[in-house]
Amino acid sequence: MPIYSEFKGRVVAVTGGAQGIGAVTARAFAKQGAAVAVLDIDGAGAKKVADAIVADGGRAVAVHTDVTEELSVGRAIAEVVSGLGGLDVLINCAGGYGRLATVEDMPVEEWDRTIALNLRSVFLVSKEAIPHLKRSKAGRIINVSSISGRQVTVASSPAYGSSKAAVIQLTRFLAQQLGPEGITANAICPITTLTPRVAALRTEAEVERIASLVPLKRLAEPEDHAQAMLFLASDAASYLNGVTLDVNGGRVMM
Questions:
Q1: β-strand pairing of 89-92 with 140-144
Q2: End-to-end distance of the chain based on CA atoms, in angstroms?
Q3: Could you give the CA distance from residue 2 to residue 204 in angstroms, rounded to a whole number?
């Protein structure tokens, strides 16, 4: 595993950090010496991740946050900065959707909730974080989009896919507007990933079927995405800006 010594002394905030890709990413940055803020609407889950990092000798705080609400986000970023002394890297990992649906049978309220969770959240958290990232010598924004933002499949949510595609475009705007400040903005697009949630929802046969469509013949592990984000946040990626990295084993090639 690569060692990124530059993360020692840097502060990383991870939304959706209580479980899945977010939790693994928070732990990965902590292992590299970063101070980590775990932001999630699941306050108890966020605290569990932060406590485990501290127990391993790292530095972490848990911040209860509703990333779809402006006031909650403002309080959360203020708490991160006051508690950890600044902000260098923002990982917008919070997201998801309720169910598979078609445009015809999706209630407007469900559409709005999904767009808010996946797109509004990235806008709100990034907007609040930008003034603090400008004070960093290595400001980074990394947004988690999805393979669903790259292609349309039958088994999907139109609200989720649309919002994740929009995250890619928002990332480009951030890259263009913040580049002069020395801040880079990039995105990753995960494929279906073997998180505990996915493992609970999918049968073994379904997992095998999805894996068979991937040239590498396996689903992603959360660590695959965490490693991609470590690289994008590192000094080695300082000239990558506005990039969308497809972490999908070759399932979709753009």
A1: parallel
A2: 27
A3: 32
Across 19-52, b (16+ Cβ under 10 Å) vs e yields bbbbbbbbbbbbbbbbbbbbbbbbeebbbbbbeb
- Residue 209 CA to residue 97 CA, distance in Å, equals 22
Q: Are 21 and 190 in contact (CB under 8 A)?
A: yes
Residue 31, SS3?
helix
Catalytic annotation, residues? 160
The number of residues in the chain equals 254
DSSP reduced 3-state for 56: coil
Q: Are 220 and 248 in contact (CB under 8 A)?
A: yes
Q: Spell out the residues 6+ positions from residue 124 whose beta carbon is closer than 8 angstroms to its own.
A: 67, 68, 69, 70, 73
Contact present, 18 and 6 (Cβ < 8 Å): no
The predicted-structure confidence for 79-106, as pLDDT tens digits, reads as follows 999 999 999 999 999 999 888 889 999 9
Mean pLDDT of the chain: 94
Sign of the dihedral through C-alpha 108, 114, 118, 123:
positive
